[in-house]
Write a structure and sequence with these properties.
Shape: globular
Radius of gyration: 21 Å
Strand content: under 5%
Order of helices and strands: HHHHHHHHHHHHHHHHHH
Structural class: mainly alpha
Length: about 450
C-alpha cells in the first residue's frame, strides 16, 4: 500500500477504499441501531410491553431504545482511549462485531408472552451492547477518512461516513417496510419483524471483510512515531480542549434532538395520533432518508467551499423554525404533506450532519482526537437523542398538542445555531496546524 504523510492526500484508489470501508461499516452499524428504533415504535410495545395502553407501551419501548444512547458515551470513552493508543483500525473491527452480534440476538429473543419479564430485561441488555458498540463506531470511521484525506477536501470525504447514517436508516426502514407490506399484521408481529435483525449477520460479514483490508491511519501512525501516545487521552481532551468539547456538544444538541423527533417519534405520531397506516409512516421515512443520503455529500462539499459554520448554521436555524410547520403538515393527514414534512426535516438535518464529522474532528489534535471527538459526539446522546422521543411523547400526552414539541425543536435548533456561530472556522486547516496549537 502506498504510504501517505500527514495532511497529504492518499492515492485516489486508497482514499476511495477507505471511504467505502468507512461508509459500508457505518451503514451496517446504523442499520442495526435504527432497526431497533423503528421496531420500538411498531413492534416492541406490543410484544415486550403488552399490558400497557398503546401510548404507554410505546413510551416503555422508547425507554429501552434510549438506553442504547446512555451506553454510547461509555463506548466512546473506551473506544476513544484505545483508538488513541493502539490505532483506529482495530477498534473499527471490534465495534462492528459487537453491534452485529447483539442485533442478531435481538432477532432470536423470546417475547413477554413466552418468558415474561425476562424478555424486556434481555432486550435492555442487548440494547446496551448496541449502544456501547455504536459509541465507538463513529469516531473511528470518521477519523480514518479525515486522516487519509487532505485539508482542502476533508469536509467532502468525511461526509461520506455521515451519509452512512441515513443510509442505515433507509435500509432498516426499507427492510421493515417490505416485511410489513408482504405480511399480515399477525404474521409480522409473530415472526416477520425478526428477519431484518437476523439479516444483520450477513451484513456484518461483508463489512468485516471490507474493513480488514485497510491499513492504519497515516496521520495517527506519524503522530505516534514522533510523539508517542498519551497515557490518558480522554483526560487530555478535557484538560486541553474544554472549549472544543463545549462547541462539539452544542453542535450536536439540535442536530441530535430534532433527528430523533423526526425519525422515531414521528412514526408513533403518524400512526397513533394522525391515524395513518404503518406503511405511510415507513414510506415517508424511506423517502426522507433517501433524499438525505443524496444531499449529505453536497452539503459536505459545500462546507469545503464556503465553510463549516455557514452550512451548519443554515441547517440548525432552519430546523429551529421548521418544527411548527412540521407538525402542521403531519396533522393534515394527507400522504403528500406527510412525505414532504419528513423530507424537508431530513434535508435540514443533512445540512447540519454533513459538515459535522470534519467540524468536530478539527476541534482536536491527533494524539487525543479519537477521544475528544467521540466524547463530544456521544456525550450529547444521553440528554439529546436518547430522550427526544420520550420527551416528545410525554409532552404530547400531557398537553394533547404538538406545539410544545415544536418549541422543544426550536430551542434545540437554536442551541446548535448558536454553537455554529461561536465556533471558529476550521475549513482548510491542516492537522499539522491543529496539532501545533497543543504542542
Amino acid at each position: 500500500m502506498t504510504a501517505t504523510t500527514a495532511d497529504a492526500p492518499a492515492a485516489p484508489s486508497i482514499l476511495r477504499k477507505v471511504v467505502l470501508a468507512s461508509m459500508i461499516g457505518t451503514t451496517i452499524e446504523w442499520y442495526d441501531f435504527f432497526l431497533y428504533g423503528t421496531a420500538a415504535a411498531l413492534v416492541f410495545n406490543k410484544l415486550f410491553f403488552p399490558k400497557a395502553d398503546p401510548l404507554t407501551g410505546t413510551m416503555l419501548a422508547f425507554t429501552t431504545y434510549a438506553l442504547g444512547f446512555v451506553a454510547r458515551p461509555l463506548g466512546g470513552l473506551v473506544f476513544g482511549h484505545l483508538g488513541d493508543r493502539i490505532g483506529r483500525k482495530q477498534l473499527l473491527m471490534m465495534s462492528l462485531m459487537l453491534m452485529g452480534g447483539s442485533t442478531f440476538l435481538i432477532g432470536l429473543l423470546p417475547t413477554f408472552g413466552q418468558i415474561g419479564l425476562f424478555a424486556p430485561l434481555l432486550l435492555v441488555l442487548l440494547r446496551l451492547v448496541q449502544g456501547f458498540a455504536v459509541g465507538g463506531e463513529w469516531g473511528g470511521a470518521v477519523l480514518m477518512v479525515c486522516e487519509y484525506g487532505d485539508a482542502k477536501r476533508r469536509g467532502f470525504w468525511a461526509g461520506w461516513p455521515q451519509a452512512g447514517v441515513p443510509a442505515g436508516n433507509l435500509l432498516a426502514a426499507g427492510v421493515l417496510a417490505i416485511m410489513s407490506a408482504v405480511q399480515t399484521d399477525a404474521d409480522f408481529l409473530a415472526w416477520g419483524w425478526r428477519v431484518p435483525f437476523l439479516l444483520s449477520a450477513v451484513l456484518i460479514l461483508i463489512g468485516y471483510w471490507v474493513r480488514s483490508t485497510l491499513a492504519e491511519s497515516p496521520v495517527f501512525a506519524k503522530a505516534v512515531a514522533e510523539r508517542g501516545v498519551e497515557a490518558a487521552p480522554v483526560l487530555e481532551a478535557i484538560r486541553r480542549r474544554p472549549g472544543g468539547l463545549g462547541i462539539g456538544i452544542g453542535l450536536r444538541v439540535g442536530e441530535n434532538i430534532t433527528y430523533y423527533v423526526i425519525t422515531a417519534f414521528s412514526i408513533t405520531y403518524i400512526t397513533e395520533v394522525v391515524g395513518l397506516s404503518r406503511g405511510v409512516a415507513l414510506n415517508a421515512l424511506l423517502a426522507g432518508a433517501a433524499v438525505e443520503v443524496l444531499l449529505i455529500p453536497v452539503f459536505a462539499w459545500l462546507s469545503d467551499k464556503i465553510g463549516r459554520r455557514p452550512v451548519y448554521f443554515a441547517g440548525a436555524a432552519g430546523m429551529a423554525i421548521f418544527g411548527s410547520a412540521f407538525f402542521r403538515m403531519l396533522d393534515t393527514g394527507a400522504t403528500p404533506m406527510v412525505l414532504a414534512a419528513v423530507i424537508i426535516g431530513l434535508v435540514l438535518h443533512g445540512a447540519m450532519y454533513a459538515p459535522q464529522a470534519a467540524f468536530i474532528a478539527e476541534l482536536f489534535p491527533t494524539r487525543f482526537r479519537y477521544s475528544g471527538a467521540s466524547l463530544a459526539y456521544q456525550a450529547t446522546s444521553i440528554f439529546a437523542g436518547s430522550l427526544a422521543p420520550i420527551i416528545a411523547l410525554a409532552l404530547f400526552k400531557a398537553t394533547k398538542s404538538a406545539t410544545p414539541i415544536a418549541i422543544y425543536m426550536l430551542i434545540a435548533g437554536g442551541i446548535s445555531a448558536f454553537a455554529a456561530l461561536k465556533a471558529r472556522e476550521t475549513k482548510g486547516m491542516t492537522f499539522a496546524q491543529i496539532d501545533a496549537e497543543t504542542a
